[in-house]
Amino acid sequence: MERGVAKTWRSANARYNLTGVQCTNCKTAYFPPRMVCAKCGRDTKMVEKKFSGRGVIYSYTRIFVPPHDFTEEAPYTVAIIRLEEGPLVEGHLVDGKKPEIGASVRAVFRRMYTEGSEGLIHYHFKFEIV
Ligand SMILES: [Zn+2]
Question: pTM to 2 decimals?
Answer without folding.
Answer: 0.80
